[in-house]
Amino acid sequence: MFYVEHMKNTNLKTLLLILCCLSLFFSVSCNKRDPNPELSDAIYADLKNELDIAQKNLATEESQNAKARAELDKVVPQTGQVKYASKRFFESNNNLNLYKQQVKYFEIALELRKNEAKSRYLESLTKTGRPWPDD
Known about the structure:
Layout: H1 2-29, H2 42-74, H3 81-124
């Protein structure tokens, strides 16, 4: 009989201890600011995806450019192959420059959006601020 009554009291104490820990956790965790608010921004995530795609395209084009350069070096002079090989090489160079520009653009846009997201997040913490993340 003593054991059963003792168990009831222990379960109650354990439950109260768990509830106190949870309430303390929720009261303390509410005041902490998000160190990376841009991660919850949809536009930032989209720009990040576009940057990844542009970097993959750049890597692919670099390998194709190296192949085109090797092919141009192997072509026998005074044949019709030189014209086509040089055309492919110069087109590959143009595409390579285009992809480099795209990667640079998305890096800059990503950095600008990161700064804007941080300022908007800090603005949302004020009483008159807009909701975060912005719809």
